[in-house]
Design brief:
five-stranded antiparallel sheet; 2 domains; about 400 residues; eight-stranded mixed sheet; globular; binds manganese (II) ion; SH3 type barrels; 26 strands; alpha+beta; Fumarylacetoacetate hydrolase, domain 2
Length: about 400
């Protein structure tokens, strides 16, 4: 191996995700995470090893690289995989090709044109339905027929590590008949994963479930921050608005679908049977362990949730088929969120709303403090990895610190 990769690294030889990084003397550019290092693809291109226009590797987003198509992006990944294991390859004797992740700064990996957020975890939709509507009929009648979603906002999606201020907005306090304005009192995280599209379809055409994966470049962790008190007051009748668009964080490395191939698994059985355009062949879920930690300001982190992407009722192929069935076009670099990923167990719920059950069951942190929602100074970190037969493919983290509301 050209570079030492620690045993439990998320960025093993089986992963090799793409991202955009900068460091002293290197403007933002494309790289591949390898253990604790980054392989500088723009610098590697200077050694004339690639047979495509490598100017795309010097851009500050991956969009133009992804636009070359999987034929090329997959070859870059598999070539690098071989070269890393060959002590006589082009990667040998060229230390300038590698930067340590510690000395690099990560950027948003793609310019995101459109962002859609689904609502595809049955456990999450059921929990929210129980709390906000009817404990007996928690799932709305459409839920098992449609991968429900809404169009979110792309401009406020930022990369892991970007701090933000608690949002302010309008809420209706319990028992009040007039709304008030101020900082959200119920700031929450949402444990999600997102996929990034790598191939467009023309406006007016549709993508079927058999071809959906050709349109998916890869996946990231996504924290779809939510202000529950603002949400509760504003969401009727058109759905989420300012409670969701103040900020969302994604992990910096895009893990390709190819790297996730060994971790395919069957999803939950869908009953009743879905309409023909949503039917699919084969195993379309992925076994990806997920967790969320909360670290109060200056204190140790407490893991508050352990979930798994495989719990998703609707898979990504169905989401994309549904999204385009009316002729809506997807574009390169769009982000599609899974929706909050909750499991069946109370410690697998993917939001504070569910974990602390609307504030009725506060969580105790390692430092003794209690949480119903997220406090100022808290750092919330999402992590995810797939592991099987000695292969580990991880996502790193999507982490962010909450600062007090601006005056
Ligand atoms: Mn969401």
């Amino acid at each position: 191996m050209i570079i030492d990769i620690p045993e439990q690294s998320d960025f093993s030889i089986h992963n090799l995700p793409f991202g955009i990084f900068s460091s002293q003397g290197r403007a933002p550019r494309a790289g591949i995470a390898v253990g604790e290092h980054i392989l500088d693809l723009a610098a590697l291109a200077e050694l004339d090893v690639f047979a495509f226009n490598t100017a795309v590797l010097e851009k500050d987003t991956l969009n133009d690289f992804i636009a070359l198509g999987k034929e090329i992006t997959t070859k870059v990944r598999t070539d690098v995989q071989q070269w890393l294991q060959d002590n006589n390859s082009v990667l040998a004797g060229n230390p300038q090709l590698f930067v340590t992740q510690k000395e690099a700064r990560m950027h948003l990996p793609v310019s995101i044109g459109d962002y859609t957020d689904f609502y595809s975890s049955m456990e999450h939709a059921t929990n929210v339905g129980k709390m906000f509507r009817d404990p007996e009929n928690a799932l709305l009648p459409n839920w098992k027929h449609i991968p429900v979603g809404y169009h979110g906002r792309a401009s406020s999606i930022v990369v892991s590590g970007t701090p933000f201020h608690r949002p302010k907005g309008q809420t209706l306090p319990n028992g009040a008949d007039q709304p008030v304005f101020g900082p959200s009192q119920r700031l929450d995280f949402e444990l999600e994963m997102g996929f990034i599209t790598g191939k467009a379809n023309p406006l007016g055409s549709s993508i079927d479930t058999d071809h959906a994966e050709e349109h998916i470049f890869g996946m990231v962790l996504l924290n779809d921050w939510s202000a529950r008190d603002i949400q509760k007051w504003e969401y009727v009748p058109l759905g989420p608005f300012l409670a969701k668009n103040f900020v969302s964080h994604i992990s910096p490395w895009i893990v390709t679908l190819e790297a996730l191939e060994p971790f395919r698994t069957q999803g939950p059985e869908q009953d009743p049977e879905v309409l023909p355009y949503l039917r699919y062949q084969g195993a379309r879920n992925y076994d990806i362990a997920l967790e969320v930690g909360i670290a109060p300001d200056g204190a140790a982190e407490t893991t508050v949730c352990r979930s798994n992407f495989k719990f998703m009722y609707w898979n990504m192929a169905q989401q994309l088929a549904h999204h385009s069935v009316n002729g809506c076009n997807v574009q390169i670099g769009d982000l599609y969120g899974s929706g909050t990923i909750s499991g069946k167990e109370a410690d697998s719920y993917g939001s504070m709303l569910e974990l602390a059950w609307m504030g009725t069951k506060p969580l105790t942190m390692a430092d003794g403090s209690q949480r119903k929602f997220i406090a100022d100074g808290d750092t919330v970190t999402l992590r995810g990895f797939a592991q099987k037969e000695g292969k580990r493919v991880g996502f790193g983290e999507a982490s962010a610190k909450v600062l007090p509301a601006q005056p």
